Amino acid sequence: MTVVVGYVPTPEGEAALTQAIAEARKSNSTLVLVNSSKGEAVVDNRFAQDGDIQDIEQRLASQGIHYLVKRPVRGHDAAAEVLDAAEEHKADLIVIGLRRRTPVGKLIMGSTSQRILLEADCPVLAVKAG
């Protein structure tokens, strides 16, 4: 079994990771962490720093979680990367974090979470921070 988590270094991303770890432990699944960037900016705040990823890897290893970290920079949006990883690894579950957005913000920017929820071929668990 495989659990895919869309991770960004935010409270919502941490909530998703924490829940994904719990789900992976419960079902003895492999955890695939996806942290992507389009590569359009020199600094992308949604792309975790190397040190943060190393901390996550230590956290997963210390809990006995089998894991794979994917950090693609291919010009694709985060939803596409999570959906691609879920398909590639035949995910049984996708875990994502949600944050509140205004209706106008959703209209203008779209919603990564909404796209994953609507297009995923497996169940999606959406969690909120705090």
Q: What this model shows, in words?
A:
The protein is built from 5 helices and 5 strands. The chain has 130 residues and is α/β, with parallel strands linked by helices. The protein has a single domain (2-128), classed as HUPs (Rossmann fold), CATH 3.40.50. It has a 5-stranded parallel sheet, sandwiched between helices. α3 (78-88) runs parallel beside α5. It is globular. The model has no long low-confidence stretch (mean pLDDT 88).
Describe the protein's topology.
Elements (H helix, E strand, L loop, with lengths): L1 E5 L4 H17 L2 E5 L15 H13 L4 E4 L7 H11 L4 E6 L4 H7 L2 H8 L4 E5 L2
Parallel strand pairs: 1-2, 1-4, 2-3, 4-5
Low-confidence stretches: none
Strand content: 15-25%
Order of helices and strands: EHEHEHEHHE
Number of domains: 1
Give the helix proportion (percent range): 40-55%
Envelope shape: globular
Secondary structure category: alpha/beta
* Spatial gap, N to C terminus: 28 Å
Number-wise, the strands total 5
- Alpha plus pi helix count: 5
Question: Largest sheet, if any?
Answer: 5 strands, parallel
Broad CATH class = Alpha Beta
* Fourth CATH level, the homologous superfamily: HUPs
Provide the residue-averaged pLDDT.
88
CATH arch. level architecture: 3-Layer(aba) Sandwich
* Rg: 14 Å
Major beta sheet, strand line-up? 3-2-1-4-5
In the CATH hierarchy, the third-tier topology is known as Rossmann fold
At a glance:
The protein has 130 residues and is an alpha/beta fold. Helix content is 43%, strand content 19%. It is built from 5 helices and 5 strands.
